[in-house]
Amino acid sequence: MPTTKRRALILISSGRQLPLAAPVEVTSISTGFFLVEMAQVFKEFENDYEFTFATPDGNAPQLDINGMALSVQSIEKTGAKTLPMRMQQRRRSFDVSSFRQRHPELVARREQEVRLLERHIGRIPVSELLPNSEPELAEYRPELIRRLNKLPEGTFHSLQELVLRHRDPADPFTFADFDFIHAPGGHAPMVDFRDDPWLGETLHVARENDVTISLICHAPIAVTSTRQRVDAQGRPYLVSDNPFLAAPISTVPTIGERFALRFLYPRVPGKTTRLPYFVDVAIKEAGFTLATSPNISAPLLAYEPSVRLLTGNGPQAIDQQAAKLRSILTSTRTAQRTSDKQLSKTSS
User: Fold this and answer.
1) What is the value of pTM for the model shown?
2) Of 190, 184, 306, 324, which Cα lies nearest the Cα of 248?
3) Taken in order 276, 273, 252, 158, is the CA torsion positive or negative?
4) Is the distance from CB of 293 to CB of 253 less than 8 angstroms?
5) Domains in the chain, start-ordered, CATH in brackets?
6) Distance of CA 67 to CAs 4, 111, 262, 301, 332, Å?
7) What whole-number distance in Å separates Cα of residue 280 and Cα of residue 286?
8) 220-273 confidence digits (pLDDT tens)
9) Distances (CA, A) of 145 to 121, 124, 185, 229
10) Are 151 and 123 spatial neighbours (Cβ–Cβ below 8 Å)?
11) Bridge-partner residues for 271, per DSSP?
């Protein structure tokens, strides 16, 4: 007899345009979420979990084509492989087929991730190519869009909807049914995860219902939203004593963003390119402590058990983060079973 699957909430930014502070003539660039930072969670948990999907506003998210670069699939080696693989694509002799043949394991991982996307998400838009997007991606994007366009659209709940359903005694929906929430990065969370009251309410309700929260790359900007909650009348209010402040936060560092703005796809060619803010700076200004490492390309996880918050610094950390999430959930269930047994003995 089949067992009932456990449940998890996948929270994705629906941001599609990333504002720029400079150059003034380019106000924004096409953006989205990084599949690599979500697919590994699907792979780790799909056999025993049912996924519910949400975005802050309930609109479908957009996949960032730049997160599909083969170098990103190298995970812990991404930092070392990104520039060399970009340089290979600048040669006059560059050929897409030969390039892919030289990296079969990375092509295979990307294909596995797309199949997970097809299985769990459905049809979503893909970001536009940017002037600094890799040539290999320019050939890959139309193929990817054709595949996604064959799929039915999935359902994405808004956070306001989920919170209101959780509060409604007549609605069976409850955050207590979720074991975990996972949110992937990419630049999109910079658009709609910062200082959002309904996101803050969601994270606090999740914490109060013992849900483990996993945020990676740019998604940890969501912790700034925990400074606010929403009352019964739908009015935001400031949290006077925020328990999430106990958590050290691992996220993409300013130095990594500066490197990307100078050498990688966010750069506007021939122009100094600046983001509206840096995620780690905004998190620190919100009163949080940053988890740091001298090696910005190495995986860095931070976990605070008092609020069940797990954060990671980018795609290089996703394999470790998915494994750590599994370990946390296993430990939590073991502790719960032990507690239930002790309670049962006491009551009998």
Assistant:
1) 0.95
2) 306
3) positive
4) no
5) 6-347 (3.40.50.880)
6) 34, 13, 17, 20, 32
7) 10
8) 999 999 999 999 999 999 999 999 999 999 999 999 999 999 999 999 999 999
9) 14, 9, 21, 38
10) yes
11) none
